[in-house]
Amino acid sequence: MSNTQIDPGADPSTLPTLAPGAVTPLAGPAPHAEPVYFEDMTVGRHFNTGSVTLDEGAMIAFAQAFDPQPMHTDPQAAARSIFGGLIGSGWYTAALTMRLVVGGEMRPDERGRIGLGIELLRWPTPTRPGDVLTAVIEILEARPSGSRPDRGIVKLRTLTYNQKREVMQELVANVLVPRRPVE
User: Fold this and answer.
1) Could you tell me if 143 and 38 are in contact, meaning their C-beta atoms sit under 8 angstroms apart?
2) What is the pTM of this model?
3) Is the residue at 104 inside a domain?
4) In a domain, 160, yes or no
5) 63, 89 in Cβ contact below 8 A?
6) How far is residue 41's CA from residue 38's CA, in Å, rounded to a whole number?
7) What is the rounded average pLDDT of the residues 82-97?
8) Which range has the worst mean pLDDT, 23-27, 68-72, 139-143, 155-159?
9) pLDDT surpassing 70 at residue 126
10) How many separate domains does the chain show?
11) How does the average pLDDT of the chain come out, rounded?
């Protein structure tokens, strides 16, 4: 994969896709799993996540608390909307994607990672109950921090897919990442 920017209006079919068999069951970080440090995040490297199935009740509960719009909370009203049925809040998709990332191949150590900002966040396809989401993280840029020698700054793109390999969310963000501890 090249180190290029994605046009926010790009056709999702031109975006990167998952390799066959890339989806793994969602589970928390395994106790034996090695954390991924700044030195492991080379430009062009990809990290996969597990998967999660969207439950209608959980989607509605999240939306009632955080994004109470009829297309997210009321199946009957949603059926009359431009979506023709209930859709998940984009913020629900974002929250689930974060959970997938933390539990996936790009596990943080106990110091965690600090989000520095989002350059792009879009939801080109709405999520629906029963969708199975998975994500792929691509390292776009990586450089040592100028002010924190124990950290690096990484720009990454996270694409969240459904079971049809449609892009449900695209996120480009900058993250402060711990360097490998010196022993």
Assistant:
1) no
2) 0.81
3) yes
4) yes
5) yes
6) 5
7) 97
8) 23-27
9) yes
10) 1
11) 85
Give the tens place of pLDDT for each residue, 2-39.
333 334 444 444 444 444 333 344 444 444 468 899 99
Sheet strands (E) in the chain: 24-25, 46-53, 114-122, 132-144, 151-161, 167-178
Distance, in Å, from the CA atom of 17 to the CA atom of 182, rounded to the nearest integer, reads 36
**Largest separation between any pair of C-alpha atoms in the chain:** 61
Quick check: is 4 in a domain? no
Give the 3-state secondary structure of residue 77: helix
Residue 29: the pLDDT is 46
Structural domain contains residue 60: no
152 and 179 Cβ atoms separated by less than 8 Å:
yes
**C-alpha angle with apex 149: 29 to 151, nearest 5 degrees?**
25
Q: Which residue do the tokens 């046009």 mark?
A: 7
Quick one: tokens of 60?
């509605």
Q: Which domain holds residue 106?
A: 35-53+90-178
Give the pLDDT of residue 19: 40
